Amino acid sequence: MTSLDHRFVAWFSGLDLPLVTPLAKALSIIGLSGAVFIVIALVISIRRRRPTPLLATALAVIVSEPLSTIFKRLAGRPRPSESYPDVHPLIDLPTSNAMPSGHAFVCFAAAVALSAGVPRARVPLVTLAALIALSRVYLGVHYLSDVIVGAVCGTVVGMLVVWSLRLVHPHVRARYDRNRGQQSQPDTQ
Length: 189
Known about the structure:
Elements: H1 2-13, H2 20-31, H3 35-48, H4 52-75, H5 80-83, H6 102-117, H7 122-138, H8 144-168, H9 170-181
Helix pairs in contact: 2-7, 3-4, 4-6, 4-8, 6-7, 6-8, 7-8, 8-9
């Protein structure tokens, strides 16, 4: 697995394509601390006049951010370019460890939490989280396995946030149940 991880990130970081590199850098910036998902959740909350999308997304970010830092310290995996001289990061190397990807962790947690209340947006939200996560591999600062572990951990955190909100807050529970029953019907709110 380590050899495959190394080959994958070395190949990607060596590309530096004229159109893809600026896009990957932009995705990495907007994915920092789940910022893009907070903005999306804010717009949805304002449009629907309900705070729950923003609440769920913000909680997912608040919980996942420190958890990813703790997991990074426990894993202690160095960044690809620190282990392999043929990996050339296309951005400044973060000072934290590599495993799991914090971008993937936080973005997947936010995307899952937000999409629970807005099921029609699930595919675009998860796709955006995946593109942000993969941008970190392309930029040479993460192995693919860092991103996969971050995505799985973030998904679990996002699901736990939704589950917790459903237990604690009756409005969230009613909204979630209503959305689950109407997934195939257009949302009129």
